[in-house]
Each structure stands twice: as structure tokens, then as C-alpha cells.
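C-alpha cells for 3-oxoacyl-ACP reductase. Go.
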Amino acid sequence: MAGRVQGKVAIVTGAGSGGAGIGNGKAAAILLAREGAKVVLVDLNRNAAEETQAIISAEGGESIVCVADVSSARACDAIVATTTKAFGTVDILHNNVGIEEAGGLEDTSEESWDRTLAVNLKSMFLMCRAAAGPMKAQRSGAIVNISSINAIRTLPAISLAYGVSKAGVIAFTREVAVEFAATGIRANSILPGMMQTPFVVTSLTEAYGGDISAMTSQRDALCPTGKQGEGWDVANLALFLASDEAKYITGAAVIVDGAQTCRI
């Protein structure tokens, strides 16, 4: 079905990929544009965002690039101001920015902890707060926050700060959903399982000894399907949650993991 978010205005943070290929945010931005949304592509890396924009433009979609650090309140306010100036409002906020630094309790520095929590969790608080104004004014809006199954399961490559930040995303999303339910704003989180994305390759290769092929094989073997998912699997769910088809779904934390968390 085409036009599922026709005429909507969407902000996607982390809209570029941190390497060759299609990550969760890039896929979400492309799908939202394909389904009729005007998309604001937010990324710290201009080149990465412009790569996404080039794909959208080639398919006849409309988007603008916004280079910003979403762990900054001023930057988040500026993103929403830029969006409303360009397109009039904000209908969809897709929070995808995230970093992962491997390490357990004794390996995680204070700086790494603070950086991870700021990028992965604080950014969602700041973006939601900034977008709440125009969404409340029009009494509608859809927020999709990307968490992880690491929020509810410990994975082979221990990443303490990452797991804690992603657990926080679920609680944060739940609180926002309840607080704003009567205003027409919905908020849901997605918990991806093991995905073969540029983010994973960039963040976790070292934890697997630097061998991308070995890492891929080991991660595939951990999935009941025998293969990891991809950015499009997360993006397709994000599109649904952002659309009016999900108008009575809010406060949900939806797992996309090929049944991985069904195992003991």
C-alpha cells in the first residue's frame, strides 16, 4: 500500500549509515520518503546524510539535510525549528542515533559511560521535548524510538553502558506515551535483535577479534533463523508505527529479532 504517510513531515535522526550499506535510520528515512513523507535527515556526518538524500531524490522524494549533534539541547531545538520553517510542522519523529562501546563494569570509563548515555538516551529526551510543541499544537504525532534487545538480554559482546542506555529508552518511551496519550501523540520503541548493519560492523568488529567474516558467522549462528536481520526489517516496523494504521498503538516495546529472545 503506497502513501501510508503521505503529506506527513518526518524527522529521522541518525539518517546516514556509519559505513557502506543500509542501516536502520537510513532505511527508515528512505521508506518514509517512499510512502509520501517529507523527511528531515539528521546526522553528525554530512556526507552520510547526503548519501541518503541522494537515494531519496533519485526516487522522487523530498528531503533536507540537517547536520547536528543531538546530545545538545540547542541543536535539537534548532532541528525542530528548521523543520517547521521548511515544512510547517512535525508529524513523525524517528529517534535512531546510537553508539556502542564494548566493555563491562571494570572496562567502561566514566567518559564512555557519559558519552553513551548522552547519545543514546539523552538525545531522545531532547528531541522528544523539542518536537512535543508542534505535535501538541496539532494534537497528533508519532514518535518511534530505537532501543535494542540488549535492553532486556545480555549479549555475547558485553556493552554495559549501551545495554543500560537502551533499557532507558524503553522506560522513557513508556512515560512519554502515557503522559501525552490524551494529546494525540503516540510513542513506541523498537527492540532490534542482531542486525547486519554498518553500525554493527563499525562498533563490534574489535570485540570479535577484528574479523568481520568471523563476527558475521558467529552472530548468524546465534539467531534461530540462522541469519541476522537487516535495516529494512526495523524500518518496515517503524513505518507501520509512524502511520495511522497504528493509531491505537502507543507505549509498546516491539521486538524484531527473528525469535532470538524466545530462547532461554
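Residues 9-257 form a domain with the Rossmann fold fold (CATH 3.40.50.720).
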